[in-house]
Amino acid sequence: MIVCSCNVLSDGQVRGCLHPGPGCPRTPAQVYACLGCSPKCGRCARTIRGILDRALAEAHSACTTTCGAACTLKELKEEAA
């Protein structure tokens, strides 16, 4: 599904730039930079934020079963909120 018509970005492309670790984009602006473009009208920022939030929540829920309290995703999720 196209989430940004100005830059013709799909939800798959947005999810594709999300990777575990501290270098993972945490804001729509960082996603744009990761994908080599910049926001134009900005109407897609809310949708990109939703994709980021869901991906971070999924990563954190998977992480809690393996690394528990030492998980850095919890801290990053709190920073993003």
Provide a concise account of the structure shown.
Strand 1 and strand 2 form a beta hairpin. This protein has 81 residues and is mainly α. It has 4 helices and 2 strands.
Strands, helices and their partners?
Elements: E1 2-4, E2 9-10, H1 11-16, H2 28-34, H3 45-64, H4 72-80
Antiparallel strand pairs: 1-2
Helix pairs in contact: 3-4
Written account of the structure:
It is built from 4 helices and 2 strands; from the N terminus they run ββαααα. It is mainly alpha-helical and 81 residues long. A two-stranded antiparallel ribbon has the order 1-2. Helix 3 (45-64) packs antiparallel against helix 4. The longest helix is centred in the last third of the chain and has 20 residues, at 45-64.
Runs in which pLDDT lies below 50 for 5 or more consecutive residues are none
DSSP strand (E) fraction? Answer: 5-15%
Rg value: 13 Å
Globally, the shape reads globular
- The count of domains is 1
Number of helices: 4
Secondary structure tally: strands: 2
Summary keywords:
81 residues; mainly alpha; two-stranded antiparallel ribbon; 2 strands
